[in-house]
Structures are given as C-alpha cells and as structure tokens.
Amino acid sequence: MKNDERVIINVKQAKSIAYTIFWFGILAVLLYRWFVLNQTLVDTFDFFLVWIIASLAQFFALAIKGIPITYPVSMSKKEQLYFAFLSPLLTGIISAIIIIFFKEGVEFKRILRGFAGGFFGMLFLFFLYKTIFYLWEKRNT
Predict the structure, then answer these.
(1) 66: three-class secondary structure by DSSP
(2) Under 8 Å between Cβ of 55 and 23
(3) Mean pLDDT within 16-26
(4) pTM of the model
C-alpha cells in the first residue's frame, strides 16, 4: 500500500478525532469524579495530570506552529483584544462560582483569591501564547 496524500490526511483526521474524544473523555471522567463521586483533586491527580499535560501540549504546539489562538475563527485586532480580556475574566468568574458552589469558603478573600488565580492564570497563558506566536512570526517572516 502506498502512502499517498489521501491516506496521510485520513490518518491525521482519525488521530485528531481520537485525541479529541480522549481529551474530552478524561475531562468528563474528572468532572464525574469531582461532582458526582465528590473526590478531591488529590484523589484524581493522575487523571488531572494527564489531562493538563495534554491540554498544555496542544496549546503550545499550536503556538509554536504559528496558529492564532482564535483559530478557526478569524478576528480583527480589536476582537482579539476583547477575547484576550474576556476569556480570563470569565475564567476568574467561573473559578469564584466553583468556590462558592462547593462551599470551599464563602469569605470574600477566598473568593477573590479564586477569581484572581483563574484570571491571572489564563491571562499569563494568553501572554505566553502571544509571545511564542510573535517569535514564530518574527522567525518565519
């Protein structure tokens, strides 16, 4: 059997579909264990570690290859700025809601720390992505 372009493309599509199912499957297992079985992060650390490493590998692989973070949606510079600000904001809000929902702490300082951790963590990842993307553009232009 020859390895022509069609076969290579079909293999890449199959691997992509399998990876996506695997990635969301691990996320579903984590959510089930956390919310239904009430297990802690320490109990599910092995699944969480695999999921976070796969997520970060995909994240940085896209940045290294010069693919915009908003791919496949094309956005103007103004829309990209909105996206770069609103995504961390929503991440911070979701972090605060999770802290309130699980009654980890209803004190304001704890909720604020959860919000700040989610917001600044996501903002840091965006800036890191943008830096890698900028360096890729600089090297290949």
Answers:
(1) coil
(2) yes
(3) 83
(4) 0.60
